[in-house]
Amino acid sequence: MLFHEAIKVAPISSHNDVSIYAGEMDGEWCVDSVPNGGYVLAQIIEACVQQQSQCPHLDPIHVTAHFLNAASLSPFEVHIRCLKRGKRFTNLVAELLQDKIVKVISHLIFGVLESPLTEGCGSENAINLLPPSPYARRVPLHHHPAQAPTTGLDRRYKFHSSPRRATSSDTIGGGGVDYGLWCGFKDKDEAVTISSLPFFADISLNAPTSSSWFPTMTMNIEYKFTIPKTSKAHSNRTVGIFSSTNFINGRLGRHDMYTEIWTAPSDIRSGAEAVEGWRNEQVCLAVSTQMALTVPIAMNLAKGKL
After folding, report:
1. pLDDT at residue 123 tops 60
2. Is there a domain that residue 124 lies in?
3. Could you report the per-residue pLDDT of 129-184, keeping only the tens digit for each?
4. Per the structure, how many domains does the chain have?
5. Residue 49: inside a domain, yes or no?
6. Listed residue (25, 27, 26, 34) closest to 297, CA to CA
7. In angstroms, what CA-CA distances link 95 with 52, 84, 181, 192, 228?
């Protein structure tokens, strides 16, 4: 199932200031037997985006999620409650439940995202750190996706044939586990959306081992800008991902992961020409941090048998 179809939710009721949306987890977007954590969070964000569609604050600005129990391949509900509606921001609490058990609880701040290309965004009145400032961060991937070598996602990912990725780890240095790739949807009917960004934030390499499962315990996402329209400078199906894990400790391999999600100048292996200065035109769409564990893959497989 295509990603945008796999995160479809629909409103079913509203009572006592709680709005309820329903959907069903799709088996293609799993890590072995368990739905990918970013995919699960995408369901919550999609429901909240729909909830805010008639309000002044349309865009998620910040999301904090605590994963209390592993999600399963079954129907779910998202219960949304508004904590505060202010002049600039709206605060929501959303819970994802399956069989009346809370699987994920999240706090979301909605507002209005600016476009990095909006006239006046770089004016003296705007507080932005963007090129051509020498202090501005550029996309930390140095190979243009049109010429980058391609590899498949880990076979444990049920969606390994859906996104495409191209690694550029040889250009990134530093301590810990640094990981960089271009990743995109293969199907031309797909597009990167606000709701899909947490999924892209949760497919990086957590640790130097492929025989483990890395269940997410907490995940934070701060959205920076709106997603630019398709152009010669920006793809609508591909993003750049840079992640870093610096500490792994304890019997459960508890670790941190920091992730940046960037626009991409083209689709992977598209044959597009790498125009000089293309890195200066890319924009960081969101940054994410998470705490995750490192546990035997057998624990994941056991979840699928429940």
Report:
1. no
2. no
3. 777 788 889 999 988 999 877 776 665 555 555 555 554 445 444 557 788 899 99
4. 1
5. yes
6. 34
7. 16, 17, 31, 24, 30
